[in-house]
TrEMBL record:
One of its GO terms (cellular component) is cytoplasm. Signal peptide: none annotated. GO terms for molecular function: glutathione disulfide oxidoreductase activity. SUPFAM superfamilies: Thioredoxin-like. It comes from the Eukaryota. It comes from Coccomyxa subellipsoidea (strain C-169) (Green microalga). Residues 18-82 form the Glutaredoxin domain. This is Glutaredoxin-1. GO terms for biological process: cellular response to oxidative stress.
Length: 117
């Protein structure tokens, strides 16, 4: 794996309050993004569709190595891997993710419609 892939992924994970790595055709990636955008401004969530990138296979290989999870989406909050779609949705539904983000000095608006807290 090229060190540039590691540098790109690591920078994005650390630079944004929330980073989502997924695939454009994946329904779980889409669901995760929609759920996050319902409670966060888009400027707080960085998304990457790795299937649309020429280095996508290398990025997924690195993310698998980093997380131990071979499938998309990969969701990072404040530089920490929190899981995929199921884990992210569960954290949103229980109110844990908004609290986690607020505790990390990320401005959280009131959850949008359809998101149960």
């Amino acid at each position: 794996m090229a060190s540039s892939v590691k540098a790109i992924v690591d920078r994005i994970i650390l630079e944004y309050p929330v980073a989502v790595w997924g695939k454009s055709y994946c329904p779980y990636t889409k669901l995760t993004k929609e759920a996050l955008f319902a409670v966060l401004p888009r400027s707080k969530v960085h998304t990457e569709d790795i299937d649309l990138r020429p280095d996508g296979d290398a990025i997924q290989a690195y993310l698998t190595l980093l997380t131990g999870k071979p499938t998309v989406p990969y969701v990072f909050v404040d530089g920490e891997f929190i899981g995929g779609s199921e884990e992210t949705i569960a954290l949103l539904q229980t109110g844990t993710l908004p609290a986690l983000l607020a505790a990390r000095d990320t401005r959280m608006p009131t959850p949008g419609p359809g998101v149960t807290t």
